[in-house]
Amino acid sequence: MTTPSLPWLAANPRARHPSSGHNLPFGRDQQFVVNPNGVPELLEELGQCPAHKVTPLHALPALAGRLGVGEIRVKDESQRFGFGAFKALGGVLAVYSVLSSAVGDAYHSSTTFAALMKREHPEITSGYVFTTASSGNHGRSVAAGAKLFGNRCVIFLPKFTSADKEAAIRARGAEVIRVDGDYDTAVAECRRQAEANRWTIISDTSWEGYEQIPRSVMRGYTVLVEEIIQQWPPGPTHVFVQAGVGGLAAAVFGYLWARYEPRPVFIVVEPESADCWFQSNLLGKPALASGNADTVMGGLACREISPVTWPVIGLGADWFMTIAEDQVVPTRRLFAGPLKSDPAITSGPSGCAGLAGLMRVCADQTAFKALGLGASSRVLLINSEGDLGEPLA
Ligand SMILES: Cc1ncc(COP(=O)(O)O)c(C=O)c1O
């Protein structure tokens, strides 16, 4: 793997990809982050939720031809649960996991999604108050989970989150607290109030001593990867995933790494001002973003990574790249008004970021070659959100 000298693209010197002659197996450290065991049972549990439906995996043959790759497939999470984003999987399942563990601990027996929805153990579950900080989507998912099981919920939002996203959270019965600052400020305030009030934080990001729940959130995301594997038997050779704190990328990379031999090439995509993974890769350990995370890609506006994901992303992602703010609108337009008979896809600013990454690489021959892209490549992208109140002008 030759590393081109581009300010927006960097190879991971720790990645042990088979094509580089090394092969870091998907070992215990990686399994701690994402473990495919039991995911079929999880899918079964989800089947009890009336809103659950597998989301589409669209093929974009015309765009693939234009860009010089073999195939492009887009997992369209804009259609998840009628919710509009993949985040629906994480928060709901993590809330379920906390409540079912509590019932399990109390009675030494397991419970089900359906039983908790019917409030079968109020003496154990009703006292839980769930909270999280969110740029919008994750908070809506936690609110939905709390509503499903009848719990109180308090969501902390940064200043920039749209009024529509706030309204969608409130519509699910949660209280909303706005902080005067960014996502990381919201995380700090959520932690402070949760400790004071003994609320249970359902965070998608981890910190020292707080890993179990972010792992449950990522386990929820693995549902979409299992679906992809079933929808696309040969699977991808290249996977572009947009990262905020890295939960989605860790779930996708980790699950595919565990299931495919050789595994695909993994590429992390971030906004320039919220490049915490890009900087962490350069430093070889968790690092802050170089900018202030002021980006239209609200779901990716994070200055710090989720450290629990390091064994998968920090050791396993092959490439880290950033995209420019002015790529967002043209990329959303390309999804919405595709070439020839490719299907039209509705994406939000964070949803389109993987495609923006692919477009940037394909516009630069050095990068294209370095990533090993070509006519036999099968590229996977995740449209992680639809239009959630940030319409295309
Ligand atoms: C639409 C969307 N895409 C991608 C992400 C990034 O996910 P993560 O923070 O797990 O990396 C988010 C996070 O909120 C999001 O809302």
Structure description:
The strands form two sheets. Strands 1-10-9-8-11-3-2 form a seven-stranded mixed sheet, sandwiched between helices. A four-stranded parallel sheet has the order 6-5-4-7, with helices on both faces. The chain has 16 helices and eleven strands. By secondary structure, it is an alpha/beta fold. It has two domains: about 10-85 and about 215-385, 3-Layer(aba) Sandwich (Rossmann fold), CATH 3.40.50; about 85-210, Rossmann fold (3-Layer(aba) Sandwich), CATH 3.40.50.1100. The protein binds pyridoxal-5'-phosphate. The site of pyridoxal-5'-phosphate has 20 residues, from helix 7 and helix 11.
Secondary-structure map:
Layout: E1 9-11, H1 28-33, H2 39-47, E2 57-59, H3 61-67, E3 71-76, H4 87-107, H5 113-117, H6 122-125, E4 129-133, H7 137-149, E5 152-157, H8 163-171, E6 175-178, H9 183-197, E7 200-201, H10 212-231, E8 238-242, H11 247-259, E9 265-271, H12 276-283, H13 310-316, E10 319-323, H14 328-336, H15 353-362, H16 365-370, E11 378-383
Parallel strand pairs: 3-11, 4-5, 4-7, 5-6, 8-9, 8-11, 9-10
Antiparallel strand pairs: 1-10, 2-3
